Amino acid sequence: RDLLKIAVIERHRATGNVGVGFVRGFGLQRGAIASTVAHDNHNIVVVGADDSDMMAAARAVAETGGGQAV
Hints:
The chain is α+β, with helices and mostly antiparallel strands. It is built from 1 helix and 5 strands. It has one helix at 51-63; strands at residues 3-9, 18-24, 32-35, 44-48, 68-69. It starts with a strand and ends with a strand.
């Protein structure tokens, strides 16, 4: 059923804003991917099969100052 959670986490002004939704078409069955390559704002975008993997991927890009994590 290829339905995953997606979150966009604001990372520039420490507002704590997080947008959450659902996406299809990634084909991901476990794990998560995160990226700060997200025009126009370069916030953290993370997609995953479970919350703990999403958190780990988001933390990985945050700790390195940006980029991608799988």
